[in-house]
Amino acid sequence: MQTVAIDFNFNDTKSSVEAFLERLRRKAPGAALSEDVELDLRSCQFLGPAAVVTLCALKAKADLAARSFRIALPEIPPPLTNYCRYSGLQQFFGLGPGPDGHPGSVTTPVRQFRTRPLSELAEMVSLVRRQMGLSESDEHRLNLTLMELAQNVLDHAESQVGGFLSARSFANEREVRFAVADMGIGFRETLRRTYSVLRDVDAIRLAMTANVTSKSSTHNLGQGLKLLRDIIQAKGGSMFLCSKGAWFELRNGRDNVGVFLNGNEYPGVLAVVTLPVRAPDADEDEDEHGDVWG
Questions:
Q1: Which alpha helices (DSSP H) does the chain contain, by range?
Q2: What's the first-to-final CA gap in the chain, in angstroms?
Q3: What does the pLDDT profile of the chain (294 residues) look like in tens digits?
Q4: What is the extent of the structural domain holding 26?
Q5: Which of 160, 149, 154 has its CA nearest to residue 33?
Q6: Counted domains in the chain
Q7: Is residue 287 part of a domain?
Q8: The domain that contains 88 carries what CATH number?
Q9: Secondary structure tally for the chain: helices H, strands E
Q10: FRET partner for 1 with CA separation of 20 to 30 A, picked from 38, 49, 118, 282?
Q11: What is the distance between the alpha carbons of residues 57 and 65, in angstroms, rounded to a whole number?
Q12: Is the whole-model pTM more than 0.90?
């Protein structure tokens, strides 16, 4: 059993994901796929939806391979320990009771899906509606965005564990974060059946192009992830996506594509979306389009 200390904040950003992959690679080579591992999170001060879906997907993958993948959860601070419970992370690893409704309804528990997660996505949209308020038009846009995100994970996964999703509202930052992950074959292996792609970074660039599809699903919109990216950019949000050794990031209205350092790889696909949301002011009407997004 290899013990790996995660003594940093596992936030919903590229730098956090890269730090996590680097720690696994250095402390337990091959840990994500082929060794018995315990992650010591007791010195960690923050876990976000990206951490939750990644850890749960890795455990599901290890369970299928009859490997042990365990975590030691932090005991303080209380907001973090509460999140471990209400996000479903604690229950998924058999470390305590599951969520019974987060006070304030700011977290949707991690959900595992193998088909289109209609009810699970409705739960996420409900979170936003309760916390921030949504017009009908914005609710439709949010549904479309999340469905495209989940569908692309399914289309590119071929994963025996399916996909995992989770969401959290941050009232102080006035934003909502969504994360979806799988432990599948990644974009390159999927797209190379139709396109000439030899590298993960080429595949992730191609996946962000309109009218690119794996043709693996009748639900595929033929937009790759471009539709999702365009909606996020229009709303002033951010997006981080990684597949095996490559990553894409939309931040501050700018796209960046690159490869992980030192040969690190995410063992599947991870997508994280952050959307700023503002509730309508009590003394102000919605704008002419009914928008309440920031």
A1: 14-27, 31-34, 49-64, 78-86, 89-92, 118-132, 136-157, 186-191, 200-207, 226-234
A2: 47
A3: 889 999 999 999 999 999 999 998 887 665 555 678 999 999 999 999 999 999 999 999 999 888 899 999 998 888 899 899 999 999 999 999 888 765 555 888 999 998 888 888 888 888 777 766 677 877 887 788 788 778 777 766 677 888 999 999 887 788 889 999 999 888 888 888 788 888 999 999 988 886 665 555 544 444 557 878 888 888 889 999 999 999 999 999 999 999 999 999 999 999 999 988 765 453 434 333 333 333
A4: 2-276
A5: 160
A6: 1
A7: no
A8: 3.30.565.10
A9: 10, 10
A10: 49
A11: 13
A12: no
Q: Which amino acid is at 152?
A: N
- Is position 284 within any domain? no
Domain-located, residue 293: no
Q: How far apart are CA 67 and CA 35, in angstroms?
A: 7
- Token pair belonging to 248: 């894409």
* Amino acid at the residue 214: S
